[in-house]
């Protein structure tokens, strides 16, 4: 009688392939159509298995974030981009729920106001970048200025810009500015990780419908979501060009399959963990004199209990 060996459960180590699978290689031509929104890397993970691994990954991320905060030598900027209903808010909620909120903040960039329009498009971005030891998440980012304005160039009329706008040279200049800005952040010790949540047009339709089907979720729905959906192809082209011009080793892009929310979250958290592990952080070293003082405080507090 033969018996079948039980299938081995996947571990976090098995997910290491996700950190390179979706990374855009700047040395190769980039085409968004080459990335499948339903891809699972051949892992065959089920949703319950993915959620269990996500729980483990949150604990690992929490430990790494604690070291980042304690050492205050580096920082992390996470950029989340995607079409409406791609899952940006949910990703922030589920991926970062286990970390210390004292060391993490989220900035959501809406349409710039009058004061912001009087400055260059990177002004409000720069002042929101992370300080040492912190993690900052951009829910939308500097890329809105080469995406929304690319699809709706009439918005540029509000920006008090000199010379001709909307020309190929104008857009190339913006791509150059973004690259230089991200390179500057990198040289100051900031890890820059950029994620495009890649969903299919049909999956977006389903998610928008779900917001209308459930009355308690209708607050999430905006009529602009439907209007912008009409420009789907233009946005895909704009994303493709933006990623092509700004994917660099010092600020990599990751095109994450996002038709399954749980899988997207797992791929993103694993990528963040890998980047923080590459820092090879250790707990801060305490000077001998301070260590002796702390030992004395410990003895004093222990005696109180007696």
From TrEMBL:
Superkingdom classification of source: Bacteria
Domain Polyphosphate kinase-2-related: 47-281
A matching Pfam family: PPK2
InterPro entries in the cross-refs: P-loop_NTPase (IPR027417), Polyphosphate_phosphotransfera (IPR016898), PPK2-rel_1 (IPR022300), PPK2-related (IPR022488)
Example GO BP: polyphosphate metabolic process
Gene Ontology MF terms in the entry: polyphosphate kinase activity
Keyword annotations of the record: Kinase, Transferase
Family to which this protein belongs: Belongs to the polyphosphate kinase 2 (PPK2) family. Class I subfamily.
Protein name in the entry: Polyphosphate kinase-2-related domain-containing protein
Source species: Acetobacter aceti NBRC 14818
């Amino acid at each position: 009688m033969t018996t079948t060996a039980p299938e081995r459960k996947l571990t976090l180590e098995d997910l290491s392939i996700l950190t390179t699978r979706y990374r855009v290689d700047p040395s190769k031509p980039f085409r968004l159509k080459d990335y499948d929104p339903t891809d699972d890397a051949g892992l065959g993970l089920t949703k319950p298995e993915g959620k269990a691994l996500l729980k483990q990954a949150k604990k690992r991320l929490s430990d790494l974030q604690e070291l980042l905060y304690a050492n205050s030598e580096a920082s992390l900027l996470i950029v989340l981009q995607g079409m409406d209903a791609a899952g940006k808010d949910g990703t922030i909620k589920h991926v970062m729920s286990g970390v210390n909120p004292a060391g993490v903040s989220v900035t959501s960039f809406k349409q710039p106001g009058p004061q912001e329009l009087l400055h260059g498009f990177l002004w409000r971005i720069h002042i929101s970048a992370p300080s040492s030891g912190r993690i900052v998440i951009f829910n939308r980012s500097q890329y809105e200025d080469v995406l929304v304005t690319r699809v709706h160039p009439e918005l540029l009329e509000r920006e008090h810009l000199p010379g001709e706008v909307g020309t190929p040279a104008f857009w190339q200049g913006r791509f150059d500015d973004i690259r230089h800005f991200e390179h500057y952040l990198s040289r100051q010790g900031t890890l820059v990780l950029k994620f495009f949540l890649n969903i299919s047009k049909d999956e977006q339709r389903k998610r928008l419908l779900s917001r209308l089907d459930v009355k308690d979720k209708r607050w999430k729905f905006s009529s602009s979501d439907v209007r912008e959906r009409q420009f789907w192809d233009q946005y895909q082209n704009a994303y493709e060009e933006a990623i092509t011009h700004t994917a660099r080793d010092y600020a990599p892009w990751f095109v994450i399959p996002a038709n399954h929310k749980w899988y997207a979250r797992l791929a993103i958290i694993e990528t963040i963990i890998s980047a923080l592990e590459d820092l090879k952080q250790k707990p801060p070293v305490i000077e001998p004199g301070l260590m002796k003082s702390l030992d004395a405080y410990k003895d004093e507090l222990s005696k109180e209990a007696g």
